[in-house]
Amino acid sequence: MQKPKKPTVFLTEAALIAALYVVLCFAQELILPTSATGAVQVRIAEALSVLVCFTPAAVSGLTVGCLVTNLLTLGVMPIDLVLGTLATLLACLSGYALRNVKFVKIPLLTLLMPVIFNALIIGLEIELFYIEGAFTFTGFMIQAGFVGVGELIACVGLGIPLYLVLKKLNIFEKFNY
Question: What distance in Å separates the CA atoms of residue 172 and residue 166, rounded to the nearest whole number?
């Protein structure tokens, strides 16, 4: 069982994770405009969702990172600040709760939480607030599908290799004060 981290260590880890999330999003935007903040996106920073397997500070860090990224992104509606941040928070909390459930030594359920929450919440948001006309279930499923595919690429496609590297390097164990 891990001993609780000192508050300064926890806050430092959370702040570093939040900053890394924001930097990754905007670096990606510089290289491939709208690929991290557009309607159809693969936000590479979402691969950092795997960090909830290593530190509870990732829950706060990723949530704040998402909020700051959305605050700094032009054209984001206020509802996205709320729903995008909520989706990230719920994904991180459930991912953290499931971090010890592994399939072939991979925390697959943890990696799928952002896919599920973002597909459902952001898919609904897009269908309700960004698409003209009346809400349709088919439209919602299409939007959820687009969001889910982007999240799947980032969280599972990039998250598994990141998890394996971090596990092998044992970074969070070495610096667990």
Answer: 8
Q: Taking Cα atoms as reference points, which of 153, 159, 175, 20 lies closest to residue 99? A: 159
In the chain, the amino acid numbered 50 is: V
Structure tokens at 123: 């898919």
Q: Which of 107, 34, 37, 20 is nearest to 77 (CA)?
A: 37
Tell whether the torsion through CA atoms of 165, 170, 173 and 177 is positive or negative: negative
Domains along the chain?
Answer: 7-174 (1.10.1760.20)
Among 29, 52, 133, residue whose Cα is nearest residue 99:
52
Q: Read off the pLDDT of residues 108-152 as tens digits, 9 standing for 90 and up.
A: 999 999 999 999 999 999 999 988 888 999 999 999 999 999 999
